Amino acid sequence: MRSFILDMTPERWEKLKVSPGSFPITEADLPSQPEPGDTLIIRHLLPNRRGIIDLGDCVIAWAEPVASNPHRYRLKVTFNMTPEQVKQRYGCPFTPLSDMIRRHRKEKEQAKLEKARRILAGKAHVASLFLSKNKQA
Question: Origin, by domain of life (predicted)?
Fold first, then answer.
């Protein structure tokens, strides 16, 4: 499970924590797509870069990319579950992006195996020709 850092104002953090419903929603720019069970660490950067205040953390229960920006995600977070509980309950291994990646890896692996099979078949054919010539002589 990974951790992501998000810069947020203290007011917005408090508003997120007290929002109604079990999974408040927020948006964040993150380097890669988070999965259920990943941790979101909330920090506040003080003006003029005088320091950083750690506001707290939460667990990501669900994430989906925002269409207009490839690194922006809409996140549902929870404060009362551990990452393991979220992973167990909401950890769906099949998101559209992970499906595409999984399919691409499978196709690459199949192509690699097919190439290796053709090479071995060619070597076996040459070896059988060599053995048949040696038996005749």
Answer: Bacteria
